[in-house]
Amino acid sequence: MDEKLIDAVIFDLDGVITDTAHYHFLAWRELAREVDIDIDEVFNERLKGVSRMASLELILQEGNRQNDFTLREKETMAEKKNQHYCQFLKHLTPQDILPGIVELITAIKSAGLPIGLASVSRNASTVLNALQLEDTFDYVVDASKVKKSKPDPEIFLTACKQLSADPKRSIGIEDASAGIDSIKASDMFAVGVGNTLFKSDYRVDATNELNWEVISAEYKKWIEIKSVR
Q: Of these residues, 14, 175, 181, 201, which one is catalytic?
């Protein structure tokens, strides 16, 4: 297809570029246990794509302890979780880039399209450095400056703006329901990675199924349908 129909491609990080979701789970579980709350990996699905403070609130609600701590205490707890998480990140290497992602990025860049990163993780730079992808993205959203977390569209709209891209002519790739909602609210084409993301405009079960020719062809169909309406 004519890639001029596409302004930019915006990636999520966790679960799309690499799978640090398990590290997040281990860090949250460690913190939760310190306040006598038990969480499992099923509950952790609710935390994907959600900001640190919002995740903490969900955990405290799970243990019915949402009113037991001051804002400052919660901020301290969230920072402690981040310290746990950063310890786990020390084990991250380029071998942890998910299958098919390097090939996908290469194909997008060969098409001359800018790529961005829209992750709510404040450790995105640390993760990219560990994966040796720090110079790969044309723009990385600073999560600390994003006021509203996913599913709000702010983070994807910010990436599009900084890349001088029209959201209606851009593609977002996500692995979480909140992320897909964020992309859709941005009026972007939503690519979902996961077998439950039925709101996606195009969906695959795993990253190794992400193929640029297929994605761009599905995007073209989407554009054509929208132009008829």
A: 14
69 with 156, same domain: the answer is no
Residues 30 and 7 placed together within one structural domain of the fold: no
Q: What is the DSSP letter of 151?
A: T
Q: If you search the block for the tokens 């950063």, which residue do you land on?
A: 86
Q: Which two structure tokens, joined as six digits, stand for 43?
A: 């509950």
pLDDT, tens only, 8-59: 999 999 999 998 878 889 999 999 999 999 999 999 988 887 888 999 999 9
Reply yes or no on whether the pLDDT at 179 is more than 70. yes
Distance CA 81, CA 73 (A): 12
- 42 in helix, strand or coil? helix
Instruction: Kindly report the CATH number assigned to the domain that includes residue 59.
Output: 1.10.150.240
Closest of 123, 51, 141, 132 to residue 83, by C-alpha: 123
Q: Which of 12, 175, 181, 201 is catalytic?
A: 12
User: Is residue 187 among the annotated active site residues?
Assistant: no
Please state the rounded mean pLDDT for residues 86-93: 90
Tokens 């062809």 — which residue? 217
- 60 and 79, same structural domain? yes
In this structure, are 67 and 99 located in the same domain? no
Token reading at 90? 């020390």
- Other C-beta atoms lying within 10 Å of the C-beta of residue 86: 13
pLDDT band at 70 (very low <50, low <70, confident <90, very high): very high
